[in-house]
């Protein structure tokens, strides 16, 4: 399979039939190769083949060449390690499946208007099925309704409607969700982190701060709400500040400014690697290990190392590569075989600290983020 990239659209072109037939098989129901033949030994003629040696057969990869699927997230690979991991997970699945596929992110992360336009473009281009994230669900009502009317199968990944997570209610048509329950992320992170920092400091933190790198993002709002609820319940003073996503030096500057005015701050929560990685850098650059601690959502290589070193207490992970990987398989098996997507496939939240960070190190090495 060849890969070509234009801006933040990554297209995957199917390889030749000869290379398809050479494939050894794939992971998941959509990628199991099947072979058939007539005659002795499973083929036409002697020796199990059509003539000398090999057999004749088909693979699901060859059949999948006529299936067109699109992944339309709100993040752009290269601007955030999270979305680079998603792109790689999608590419891994597409390589296995042999479908006509493209990852179509916006030119800049969280450009929701362009994301909606990408959905419309995918419908216009004749895509059979689409996976989409819903960072601002109201914006997608018309596009997803049109997809349903035109017979385009749609699933949601990474972030969906809060009503769906709370009660299963949908305000627009889609056929399943692959991702974590964002409503539980913040509370899971905070409730498990506070006992850890108490072990380090001998008491609860004097003050905590939450860094939000995209305040208009519904999932980040749910994460922040969950963290704040736990901090309120435990009587921990806290604030939240907006930091510039995609600008590590800007994140460090805003955090340094906040802590200059609030020197009693000993716990920093972040809502994704875009803010988490610079927060770790701030702690190490200022020599604050053992005085200021971090806990965040999603985990990068630097954050995993910081967990092992003790000043990054914990993370809650959702496995972004797995979300995109499963989305490609779900879309392909539905279009090709009519298999229905599960209502909710949870990929998290999973709490990670020093006791189990080793279990995700391979995933981090492979994709950059878990």
Automatic annotation (TrEMBL):
Keywords: Sugar transport, Transport. Pfam families: Peripla_BP_4. GO terms for molecular function: carbohydrate binding. SUPFAM superfamilies: Periplasmic binding protein-like I (SSF53822). It is found in: Cell envelope. Residues 79-333 form the Periplasmic binding protein domain. Gene3D superfamilies: 3.40.50.2300. InterPro entries: Bact_Solute-Bind_Prot2 (IPR050555), Peripla_BP_I (IPR028082), SBP_2_dom (IPR025997). Belongs to the bacterial solute-binding protein 2 family. This is ABC-type sugar transport system, substrate-binding protein, contains N-terminal xre family HTH domain. It comes from Halopenitus malekzadehii. The lineage of its organism: Archaea, Methanobacteriati, Methanobacteriota, Stenosarchaea group, Halobacteria.
